[in-house]
Amino acid sequence: MKMSYTKKSRSLKDDDGNLILAAAFIIPALMAIGGLAIDLRRGNNASNELQASLDAAALAALSDESVTNANVSTFAQSFVTENMDAKCVPSVTGTKQDGKVTVSGTCILDTTLLVYINKPTITVSQDAIAEKSGQGQTPCVLALSRNASPAISINSGSMLNAPGCQVHANSSDSEAIYVNSQSSIIASETCSVGGTETNSGSSIQPSAIENCARLDDPFEYLQKPTNTSGCNHRDFKPGVSTTMSPGIYCKKTEIEDGITVTMLPGTYVFRKGELVINSGGKLVGSDVTLYFHDKEAYLLANSDSTVQLDAPDSGYYQGIVMFQNRKVSEGDAQPFEINSRSKSFLEGVTYLPKSHFKINSKSDVNTSASYSVIVANTIEVNSESALEIASDFDSGTPLPDIFTESEPRLTH
Question: Residues of the chain with pLDDT > 90: what percent?
């Protein structure tokens, strides 16, 4: 019996030793897991707080005229430090150029439990970009499609020339902006949510920026004309040069060779049919807005035709020369085309949120316009054509209010 008792005692002592040994491993592991959860939560909170402070600093620096590129880092550092938890003192830098403020911050946070497993700090980093949504900041060429490949294409010796403003593609495709075969884009900035592709002697000047923030549709506010039902004219096709009056034009509206049609000031609604300017035909007008109501309504300017229109100087459609109903399905929308050797201009905003805007075959578009803005689902310039985007925003045709309000906004 005595021998049996001794063996049992030793067994219990062995078990105790094993439990102590296991605990030596398990307890630190549990502490590490618990510490990781606690400190990661603290790190996430610090990251969110840093982002909010940087956002506010960027907007404040943009609005404060006394803040320049020389002192923006000091301003942002002080601003963010005052708004951050004292346990996480950030290091902040910034730039302020061309109506844009960029600030970046890094914060080193002391850990509470991870320090016991040799992880004394967590580093969090964020950045913020603020721009003015007014003049010169909203792109003058914007392709709204989020997935088109490409969203903006410039092909076969063609050119998109917008030296005073921005070109932007919202598509996340790797070839969202495609420039091919001796073609070029010249702009103050060319930006793509996705990627860009240039080949065969083509160029983007200066080099495009990729992985940009996606931009909101700047004309989502735009409402259709009050009256779009009924018809004032059907199958309008004048046999001699004449004028057009504002109203609702149904079915096909066609201008033939040798005919000049002058649009009187006002708003024109096109329903259930296209607006066609045939070879040698001419459509001109001042203080006009053209509205395309449904999937069958679109513009087709054929070879050697001329379209010369400028937007109203005042009223709800101030600065809007042509626009399309946003309720048209993207899959059903017809392209708006300006074809071979057309000498045309559209002074003001052309807004085609669901359609492809296409310029073909040695056409020169907008060379005579003081300013132009093209916002379309996708944009294409082909075969030795040129799309000229001037940016004389102090010209006689005022910009829409969204361009002139110059409200600061976060873009990243």
Answer: 50
